[in-house]
Amino acid sequence: MKQIPRTGLTGEQVIVVGPENRIGFADQRMPAVLATPWLIAHLESAARDAIAPCLEEHERSVGTLIEIEHLAPAPEGFTVTCRARVIHVDGPVVTFQVEAHDGTETLARGIHRRRVIDVDRFARRVARKRAEVRERSK
Question: Using one digit for the tens of pLDDT, what is the confidence trace for 36-88?
């Protein structure tokens, strides 16, 4: 890392709830709202963005843990702000407090952990795994 992420460092993503990120089972009775998997994806992205400036060119961060309470719905058309704040750093492991809000109420909160990795080493690991699977399927 170029620098160790400091406690309190934050990242943010702002999204609008729409057809691309709402639940797939909305109907006449069930309102269209932000789907939990998309909410989690944007909370993770906020965390990734928070520490990206701290990383070397050959480094990225990958999610290793997410524990989220989805507390309230965000209706289609609402703007949702997803925030991540660094609360602990232990070597390459960075822990975040995450929260999402729609301007009316807190939608979600929880903990997210990311690990800083070397991209080339990670790519070699993925390639080895692919090769092993190909070899087994022959």
Answer: 999 999 999 999 999 999 999 999 999 999 999 999 999 999 999 999 999 99
Q: What is the 3-state secondary structure (H, E, C) of the chain?
A: CCCCCCCCCEEEEEEECCCCCECCCCCCCCCCEECHHHHHHHHHHHHHHHHHHHCCCCEEEEEEEEEEEECCCCECCCEEEEEEEEEEEECCEEEEEEEEECCCCEEEEEEEEEEEEEHHHHHHHHHHHHHHHHHHCC
User: What is the per-residue pLDDT for 135?
Assistant: 87
For residue 135, give both structure tokens.
Answer: 């070899």
Q: Is the pTM of this model over 0.70?
A: yes
Give the torsion sign (CA, 47, 50, 55, 57): positive
The number of angstroms, rounded, from the C-alpha of 4 to the middle of its chain's C-alpha atoms is: 20
Question: 10 Å Cβ neighbour count for 13?
Answer: 19
